[in-house]
Amino acid sequence: MGNEADQLNHPALNKKADIGLIRSLHQKGLLSDQAFLSAGAVLRPVSDWFSWARQMLLFLGCALVLAGVVFFFAYNWASIGKFFKFGMIEAGIFICVIAAYKRGRTQLSGKVLLLSGAVLVGVQLAVYGQIYQTGADAFELFVGWSFLILGWVIVSEFAALWLLWLVLLNTGMILYWKQVGDPAYHMPYEFLCLTLFVLNGTGLVLREAGVKRGLEWLNNGWLRSLLFTPLLVVLSIPAIHLILEFDDLEPVRVFAALVWAAAAVGGYLCCRFKFRDMGPLALIVMNTCVVLLTVIGKLLFHGVRFSPVYELLSFSIIILVVVSAAAFWLRRTAAVMADESWEMEP
Amino acid sequence: MNDNDLTVRELLTHPQVQGLVNSEDVKRLTHDLDESEASLKDPLYIRVLFGTGAWFSTFFLLIFLAVARVFSDSETAIISGVIFLAAAIYLSKRSQSTFLTQLSLSLAMCGNVSVLIGASELLRTLEFSAVFVAHFIVCVAVYPFYANSIYRFLSPLALSGIAAAWIIAEEAFSFIHLLVAVEVFLAGLLLLHKKPCLFLAPLRYASAVMLPATILFMNLTQVDLWRNNFNEPLWPSSLLLTGSLLFLYWYLTDVSKRRAPWFILTVVSTLLLGVLTTPGVLVAIGLLIIGYAFGDKILTALSYVFIPCFLVLFYYALNIDLAHKSWVIAGSGIVLLVVRWIAGLCLRREVSQ
User: Fold this and answer.
1) Cβ contact (<8 Å) for A316 and B23?
2) pTM for this predicted structure
3) Distance CA A153, CA A171 (A)
4) Would you tell me which of A35, B5, B67, B111 could form a disulfide with B20, CB atoms 3.0–4.6 Å apart?
5) With contact defined as beta carbons under 8 Å apart, do B206 and B156 qualify?
6) Which of the residues A52, A60, A72, A296 would you substitute to probe the B interface, choosing the one with the greatest number of B C-beta atoms within 10 Å?
7) CA dist B74 to A186, B133, B180, B185, Å?
8) Domain total for chain A?
């Protein structure tokens, strides 16, 4: 009896039990069939399945209905009158918003209904442009859409709606540069990259501030990594361009590359010591590998006078060395952070 | 929806579990948990980094081999490929160091591609049939000996991709349903096996990815850039996937619960979806259910990524007109929302009992 009690006190049993773990134990023959089924029923009772099923049915059902609506209006069915088309969409927006109000902001179904209403606003603008052929540029649709739904986004307390809003703004800016900025004002693409960096960076900073203030609806682990990705990608493009065309030192490109370097270093320090989050750390390291390999590739293929055959072989091995070093660094960092977390626990 | 916040200790001492686990089981279980803490496998981002790095390295290595005229002769290409594969297997058994693991992966990928190029040249054809057969032989021969999860994941997946490309190239579109059938069977066999071995774990994930990949590929061929006359009806795949979903429900549900109203509702709504919807929606539902049932976040994430990709490609596919597509997709969504509503109205009380 004493021995059994000692066994149950082993620190390895402090691990969180989840379905994946008990399946693994069962597969290894460490849990009998009966014990596995009972443990599964304890961890995942029918009520959990029911809640999950209702949530998934809501997400998937709404996504498919909204997609169907978008497809339908994209078809531009000529036999439907324009006022009927407007009426249908506006009725849809009205129903979604009223239903969201009735359900309340705290209910998931309320939030999803508000998101659906926000998507239908975009459909309305697209149908308007389709019917009246205003000649407006596409960026105006996205910027106008994000402006019109801003109020709902603010009150929704729903990370997915904020993400949609951010995607719309990003799309609007990219289209603005493509349709107006570059053709009319010869705006260099580096300005676009810097603008997108500021936009997404602001989103990330606001998200962190919100989490610090206790806004639980922002506290999804994946959101930080998702917001970090465009920050790194948009600025690494001018950085890579600068490396590849080092003779052509545009000031704005140099500035963008310096901002990338600062963002990478600052982001690494924040994620390592403040947030202690491996996801964005790994993204930063991978992004840095890409830029570093660009530098090495440039030096190897244009700087050093080797036979092209050996340059290719050398670069192939250099890629492995750089990636291996990055993986080693990430493993080591993860282990150190895990030890620090263990020491910090009461 | 998250698993209750219990530790392993709390679970083992739970009244429903306690009598079913003896002290010997606890001892072995503890030992296993202790060992697995010490030898944690790499997280996903490390494996993505490895896989991506190895791919790029393989790319430059292949160009090097092409420039060095290794591929000019089919025998040389095949022999080099076999040597690279053997070297990869040797390195993987010799050392677990990060660099050598990466190098072995790159050599394995390079060797695999070299053999395929050599086989095509030997048979004097660039037809997919030759590439498919060559890759099948390499995959079957190397998988048991080369213990790298990334290669074991990518190699079968590539086989499925080559098969899909072969079907499209030959315009034998009815065979796409046969491919879907094989993938469904393989996924079912590997994912639902009561005690699958670790050896087949990467193949298990590859089989889970093959299905959505094939569906996406099917839609991709119908985009304006790359259009074939794919006038094949989709109902055979829909029928097959509906049957698989019904089997999945049957497998996951206890015998005593198979006459419960919620089970009947699930079966009826799936049959209705099978009639209404497109295979992509059924695959998404299957992945979501398996991901939740097995606590597998990778499969769940795969379904979340698959759904928007599928909807975008489905939108641009030209084999069905947009009006019909809108009814199919919106109709499927309505069925799901109605099921949710019925479940909320009628089943909440029963479930809470």
Assistant:
1) no
2) 0.80
3) 17
4) A35
5) yes
6) A60
7) 52, 16, 33, 35
8) 3
Candidates B2, B7, B29: best to mutate against A (most CBs of A within 10 A) is B29
Nearest to A19 among B3, B26, B284 (CB): B3
- Same domain as A122, residue A11: no
Task: Examine the domain organization and report whether B166 and B177 are in the same domain.
Answer: no
The reply to whether A127 falls in a domain is yes
Residue with tokens 């990815």: B209
**What is the domain count for chain B?**
2
Phi, psi of A149 (to 5 degrees): -95, 0
Residue B267 lies in a domain: yes
Å between B240 CA and nearest CA of chain A: 21
Contacts with B106 from chain A: Cβ below 8 Å: 316, 320
Nearest CA in chain B to A46: B351
Domain boundary (B104, B138, B170) is at: B170
Give yes or no: residues B177 and B166 share one domain: no
pLDDT by residue for chain A (346 residues), tens digit each?
456 566 677 777 778 888 888 888 888 888 888 888 888 888 888 888 888 999 899 989 999 998 888 888 777 666 778 888 889 889 999 999 999 999 888 888 899 899 999 999 998 998 888 888 777 788 989 999 999 999 999 998 898 899 999 999 999 999 999 999 888 888 899 999 999 999 999 999 999 998 888 888 888 778 888 888 998 999 999 999 999 988 888 899 999 999 999 999 999 999 999 888 888 999 999 999 999 999 999 998 887 777 888 889 999 999 999 999 999 999 899 888 888 876 655 5
How far is B170 from chain A, CA to nearest CA, in Å?
A: 31
Distance (Å) of CA B248 to CA A115, B171, B285: 32, 32, 11
Judge: A71–B315 Cβ closer than 8 Å, yes or no.
yes
Burial of A209 (0-12, 13-18, 19+ CB in 10 A): exposed
Tokens 């990705």, residue? A229
Residue B102 lies in a domain: yes
Do B185 and B318 sit in the same domain of this protein?
Answer: yes
Contact state of A66 with B29 under an 8 Å Cβ cutoff: no
Closest residue by Cα to residue B160 from B141, B144, B182, B142: B182
CB contact (8 A) between residue A17 and residue B45: no
The verdict on residue A290 lying in a domain is yes
Owning domain of residue A12: 1-45
Q: Is the alpha carbon torsion for B136, B137, B143, B148 positive or negative?
A: negative
Same domain, A346 and A219: yes
Give the whole-angstrom CA distance, residue B260 versus residue B240.
Answer: 25
A307 touches chain B (CB under 8 A): no
As given in the structure block, the two tokens for residue A79 are 């036999």
Residue B61 belongs to what domain range? Answer: 41-170
Q: Which residue of B has its CA nearest to A71?
A: B326
CA distance B133 to chain A (A): 28
Q: Which of A236, A271, A276 is nearest to A257 (CA)?
A: A236
Q: Are residues B138 and B279 in the same domain?
A: no
Residue B136 and residue B185 in one domain: no
